[in-house]
Amino acid sequence: MMKSLRYLLGEGVRNIWSNRTMSLASVGVLVSCLLLTGAAVLFSLNINAAMKSIEGTNSVRVYMKEGLPVLSAVKTGSEIKKLDNIKSCKFIPKDDAIARVMSMLGEKDAALLNGMTGKDNPLPDAYQVSFRDLSKYKDTVAKIQKISGVGSVNDYSDIAAKLTKLDHIVTTGGFWIVLLLSLVSLFIISNTIRATMFSRRLEINIMKSVGATNWFVRIPFVVEGMVIGLISGILSSGILRLLYSRLTMTLTSIVRFSPIAGGSIWGRLTLVFLLAGCLFGALGGIISIGKYLRKEGGDIVDW
Amino acid sequence: MIVFQDVSKVYPNGTRALNHVNLRVDDGEFVFIVGASGAGKSTFLKLITCEERPTEGEILVGEQKLTELRRSEVPYLRRMMGMVFQDFRLISNMTVFENVAFAMHVVGASSREIRRRVPYILGLVNLQDKARCHPRELSGGEQQRVGLARALVNNPKILIADEPTGNVDPALSFEIVDLLNEINKRGTTVLMVTHEHSLVRKFRRRVVEINSGAVVADSCNWEVPQ
């Protein structure tokens, strides 16, 4: 049994080599499919992490009206503190705010803002306000907005909603694209295997004539599909890892953004890629050989 | 033993290939099947190998009723049979040894068994020196002997030869049938389809003639039916 299995596995690998152009095409399509799936998953995970971090801060930035004297700003701050859902209320003077913007821009670009410090600072004073109960978020924001001296409230609930919407679009769009590409992958893989089958039809006929079971005929083709799937899984996992690290490196240098770290995600994603690749490959093999065995492959020869 | 009891075969397009055929081939017999093209010889072979099922009647191969045989059992029936084809059907990128060993791989034989059995069979067909050759390096007669070795390697009870001398020089035809004769003497039932009357005359075995889907002559006499 083990010897037969070893022989059949060897035959499967041999099929790939003897039909390498089509195998390469299959790997290409499957890699694209897996890459898109992986990208959609990573995007979704990052959006979720960003939303959690927004929810985690539990806070809003309350900007004072332009030109509001510091004393009035302090008074406004105490009005805010009086509201029942306020956990903390920290004053952020406009000088600290501009200094923070300058530090984010880096040494070179920060020089552009040199003329905007001191009296010429265009930023308003602000309060970083955190809430006790997030369910009263909107209500509390509305109450803050009514307090005199408050210019605007940076309401993150809007960003969270936008992120949710974006996540939904990416998930839905990703699903359909991945579904379409999956079907294309299956079609290409089964055609690749069909081409191998066509080139090996004499062997199949001889196998049938000497009493090979359908599974014996099938296994090398299923192995062929699975190896194509495994190669695609490994390749796409590597490519995605590389692209993700490059992209996050670039993004974090442009905007304040903390992407989810690889770590355990890569392990799971690679495993999923390998399993998905294997599954697609095996399915492609089973579909094509099944069709063949039901039709011409059932015959031994033209007697 | 092969028994055809009132067997008819009608294809879906309406062609009646066999018409109420009754025939019995005992174990260890050597039977020449003759008949014109389209007479029903191929259908006769297809029914024995279970590639086709009869429309009417019953076929027995050994103890096995073929009409009751499930699809999944067909491979095991075929393991009782060896098949030799007119066009040899050898795999060109395999050596002689590999071509013969291939039939053993299919039935799950171990490498040790293959290493022991294949040289023995190649010796039986006088090809022990050609084990490493590829089919293209062999003559037609030698290629057919490889086909014969492949058919015999799994020790079949029945050997079905479909015009095995059709692509071989007339002089070598006798050599092939001589080999089949030797195999038959060891107890294997041989069914050989042929158009060559000279062979039938020379080897003096049972001759069954099929014409228009019916057995029109069944003679243990060596004379070719007219």
Tell me briefly what this model is.
With 303 residues, chain A is α+β, with helices and mostly antiparallel strands. Helix content of chain A is 73%, strand content 8%. A 4-stranded antiparallel sheet of chain A has the order 2-3-1-4.
Secondary structure blueprint with pairings:
The complex is a heterodimer of chains A (303) and B (226).
Chain A: H1 2-18, H2 20-57, E1 59-64, H3 70-82, E2 86-92, H4 94-110, E3 126-131, H5 137-146, E4 150-154, H6 156-199, H7 201-209, H8 214-254, H9 264-294
Antiparallel strand pairs in A: 1-3, 1-4, 2-3
Chain B: E1 2-10, E2 16-25, E3 30-34, H1 41-48, E4 56-61, E5 64-65, H2 74-78, E6 81-84, H3 96-106, H4 111-124, H5 140-152, E7 158-162, H6 170-185, E8 189-193, H7 197-203, E9 206-211, E10 214-219
Parallel strand pairs in B: 3-8, 3-9, 6-7, 7-8
Antiparallel strand pairs in B: 1-2, 1-4, 4-5, 9-10
Helix pairs in contact in B: 3-4, 3-5, 4-5, 5-6
Give your account of this protein's structure.
The complex is a heterodimer of chains A (303) and B (226). Chain A is α+β, with helices and mostly antiparallel strands. Chain A has two domains: 2-54 and 160-298, no CATH class; 66-148, 2-Layer Sandwich (Alpha-Beta Plaits). Chain A has helices at residues 2-18, 20-57, 70-82, 94-110, 137-146, 156-199, 201-209, 214-254, 264-294; strands at residues 59-64, 86-92, 126-131, 150-154. In chain A, helix 1 (2-18) crosses helix 8 (214-254), helix 2 (20-57) runs antiparallel to helix 6 and helix 8 packs antiparallel against helix 9 (264-294). The longest helix of chain A is centred in the middle third of the chain and has 44 residues, at 156-199. Chain A is elongated and about 100 Å long. The mean pLDDT of chain A is 81. Chain B is α/β, with parallel strands linked by helices. Chain B has a domain at 91-155. Chain B is built from seven helices and ten strands. Chain B has helices spanning 41-48, 74-78, 96-106, 111-124, 140-152, 170-185, 197-203; strands at 2-10, 16-25, 30-34, 56-61, 64-65, 81-84, 158-162, 189-193, 206-211, 214-219. In chain B, the strands form two sheets. Chain B has a six-stranded mixed sheet with strand order 6-7-8-3-9-10. In chain B, strands 2-1-4-5 form a four-stranded antiparallel sheet, covered by helices on one side. In chain B, helix 4 crosses helix 5. The model of chain B has no long low-confidence stretch (mean pLDDT 91). At the A-B interface, helix 1 and helix 7 of A face helix 1, helix 2, strand 6 and helix 3 of B.
